[in-house]
Amino acid sequence: MELLLIRHGRPFHVDDPAGADPQLTPEGEDQAARLAKALAGGRHGRVERMVSSPMRRAHQTAQAGADALGLELDLDPRLAEFDLGWTSYGTDLSSYTDRREIWADLNAGRLRDNSFDPEAFRRRVVAGVEEVISARRDAGDGYDEATVAIVCHGGVINAYLTHILGLPQAFFTDPFYTSVTRVLARPGDHREILSVNEVDHLR
């Protein structure tokens, strides 16, 4: 089967003591609409299932695609970003002047004043993605031709790709908003990265 790992559209930068969970900006809504049109138009074959992180920016992006495809949307909390529950979104990254420092900090489990466990995060993500794969495999016929889309976050995509690559660090790249990363999942544990950061639908 082919797995589409899709980052959400561009969200607002927000601060919220109750937990920052921003919606898409107008630009992000346009990105989500372009993604939905591409998926419905068959750019990535016939998508038969859509799964999303429950965080608002991913859910909103995924719902546009699910509506365009006429699919029910499934939510999985294991696909939430590492910043779940943090009180700010977006402002920390903009304060870095050297991208190498971003990756060093994230792989050390910190982002300015916030901290998390990168390996626990990666284990959670891998469990969620692999469950999507195994659920389709267990469904029976058509596994090899199946395409399933997961709408999630940049960190989630990083965590799963570094798992496939066997890298010690969990973070190494910054997927663009609504970019598509394609993974081939063969029976057993064979996972093959077909592409990273496809954005042709935004042109």
UniProtKB/TrEMBL annotation:
One of its GO terms (molecular function) is phosphatase activity. GO terms for cellular component: cytoplasm. The lineage of its organism: Bacteria, Bacillati, Actinomycetota, Actinomycetes, Mycobacteriales. This is Histidine phosphatase family protein. It holds the Pfam family His_Phos_1. InterPro entries: His_Pase_superF_clade-1 (IPR013078), His_PPase_superfam (IPR029033), PGM_Phosphatase (IPR050275).
